[in-house]
């Protein structure tokens, strides 16, 4: 119809008339928009409402984290009253998470009514618009916005997918789109509940983690960077890697598994570590095997006075590996300056091999020993694996565990059901026998050469196996 009308209009009116009509229409439109703008000004002038905009991107396309936090807060708010919901799966174990999916949301805070609306501009950028009565200005700007952002961040932390990062070998940094870290979703079932260790020690670690997590104000008050170092040490199979997974699950932090042997030098180490995000755990497994930290330092200190400047430089180039001082500088220096809320964990089987400078308090704040299976630890494993609180064989096992060194990994392996029917008596009987055998071996070993032979060399870490 429009085409038909247009064709008729073209034929019936002479050209100068057409131009006059066009101009008339345009000027009317301009007048309308002028009036609209004018009325907008008048309404804004007399309106009792205030509007605050929070854009998704600030200048230079910097992402505005407040926008995301507000979005999360509003998404989670009052989903029972919402008409539109959005479902997404956060973690396999946690099932579906429902979010409110509406552009306009109403909220009440300390008696002040506010309206949130997402507005999308023509070029696709979104802005959160917050409208409220001028009466509530003080409450909204004073505490409401802060409250919304903080709530949003804490909801994000609870429902976010955890990630496990591993550093790319530096040779590949150019090719793999310049990314220093690659990551996969981290879904490990370990928890403090299933971790077999002395309950008092476990509680101590848990208290420490809680104090760290809630310590934002405290760390600010004492003027210390919000970070904490843990050293986990003990023989193989005693649960060091399992504990790291349990800590990550408990705090909902990402893990950065740092493989020092894939790094060429200290500056690469610095680059990697400054690219980590906050709320994360940086893990260096088997620190004694990763880098020859101790001997290198001693050698350098000894040789320094004898060597001429040039020779020293040449040696530095040859040994262009991560050094102890590089690691220490990072922990104390840049580490403190960039990023907050981070935990660094070292693990080792040989505490005695580590340089005292590395493990002094302040760098590694807490030393946690994970040792051979105690009776308390055994009880946790029995509960996990066999759903058992007591059994006539428990007292025998208790006395055997007192003077037998068996790692929780070995005990756990013995208690794994071999088929669908769990034969509790059979399993515990087997365990008693193998404990007796182990005790005999250990006594024999001690008679021979005083101590058991140590295994050495770098193992494939638990997290490495995932890639
Ligand atoms: N304390 C423990 N509580 C529960 N399970 C444990 C414990 N220790 C070991 N295990 C079991 O043994 C397996 C191996 O343990 P894990 O990898 O944590 O040992 P590790 O101390 O890191 O050893 P390594 O020094 O060789 O790296 C785990 O998958 C877990 O099933
Ligand atoms: Mg391990």
UniProtKB/TrEMBL annotation:
It comes from the Eukaryota. Keywords: ATP-binding, Hydrolase, Magnesium, Nucleotide-binding, Signal. SUPFAM superfamilies: P-loop containing nucleoside triphosphate hydrolases (SSF52540). Residues 226-374 form the AAA+ ATPase domain. SMART domains: AAA (SM00382). It catalyses: ATP + H2O = ADP + phosphate + H(+). CDD domains: RecA-like_BCS1. One of its GO terms (biological process) is response to stress. Pfam families: AAA, AAA_assoc, AAA_lid_At3g28540. Its cofactor is Mg(2+). PROSITE patterns: AAA. GO terms for molecular function: ATP binding; hydrolase activity. Residues 438-467 are annotated as: Disordered. Belongs to the AAA ATPase family. BCS1 subfamily. This is AAA+ ATPase domain-containing protein.
């Amino acid at each position: 119809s429009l085409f038909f009308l247009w064709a008729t209009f073209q034929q019936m009116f002479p050209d100068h008339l057409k131009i006059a009509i066009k101009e008339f229409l345009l000027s009317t439109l301009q007048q309308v928009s002028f009036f609209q703008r004018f009325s907008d000004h008048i309404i804004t002038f007399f309106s009792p409402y205030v509007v605050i905009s929070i854009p998704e991107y600030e200048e230079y396309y910097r992402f505005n984290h407040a926008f995301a936090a507000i979005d999360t807060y509003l998404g989670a708010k009052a989903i029972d009253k919402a008409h539109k919901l959005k479902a997404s799966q956060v973690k396999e174990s946690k099932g579906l998470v429902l979010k409110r999916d509406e552009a306009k949301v109403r909220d009440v805070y300390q008696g002040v009514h506010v309206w949130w609306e997402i507005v999308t501009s023509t070029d696709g950028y979104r802005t959160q618009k917050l409208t409220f009565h001028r009466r509530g200005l003080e409450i909204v700007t004073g505490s409401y916005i802060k409250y919304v952002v903080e709530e949003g961040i804490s909801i994000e932390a609870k429902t976010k997918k955890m990630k496990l990062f591993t550093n790319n070998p530096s040779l590949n940094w150019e090719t793999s789109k310049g990314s220093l870290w690659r990551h996969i979703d981290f879904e490990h079932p370990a928890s403090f509940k299933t971790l077999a260790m002395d309950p008092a020690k476990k509680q101590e670690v848990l208290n420490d983690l809680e104090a760290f997590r809630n310590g934002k104000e405290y760390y600010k008050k004492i003027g210390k960077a919000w970070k904490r170092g843990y050293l986990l040490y003990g023989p193989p199979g005693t649960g060091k890697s399992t504990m790291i997974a349990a800590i990550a699950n408990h705090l909902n932090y990402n893990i950065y598994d740092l493989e020092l042997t894939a790094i060429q030098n200290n500056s690469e180490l610095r680059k990697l570590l400054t690219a980590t995000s906050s709320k994360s755990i940086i893990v260096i497994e088997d620190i004694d095997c990763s880098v020859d930290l101790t001997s290198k330092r001693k050698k350098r200190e000894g040789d320094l006075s004898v060597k001429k400047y040039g020779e020293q430089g040449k040696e530095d180039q040859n040994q262009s590996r991560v050094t102890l001082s590089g690691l220490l500088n990072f922990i104390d220096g840049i580490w403190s300056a960039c990023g907050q809320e981070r935990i660094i964990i070292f693990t080792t089987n040989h505490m005695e091999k580590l340089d005292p400078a590395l493990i002094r308090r302040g760098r590694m704040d807490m030393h946690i020993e994970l040792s051979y299976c105690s009776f308390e630890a055994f009880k946790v494993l029995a509960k996990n694996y066999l759903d058992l609180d007591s059994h006539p064989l428990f007292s025998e096992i208790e006395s055997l565990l007192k003077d037998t060194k068996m790692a929780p990994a070995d005990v756990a392996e013995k208690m794994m059901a071999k088929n669908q029917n769990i034969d509790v008596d059979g399993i515990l009987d087997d365990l008693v026998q193998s404990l007796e055998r182990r005790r005999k071996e250990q006594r024999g070993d001690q008679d021979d050469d005083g101590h058991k032979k140590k295994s050495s060399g770098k193992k494939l870490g638990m997290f490495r196996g995932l890639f």
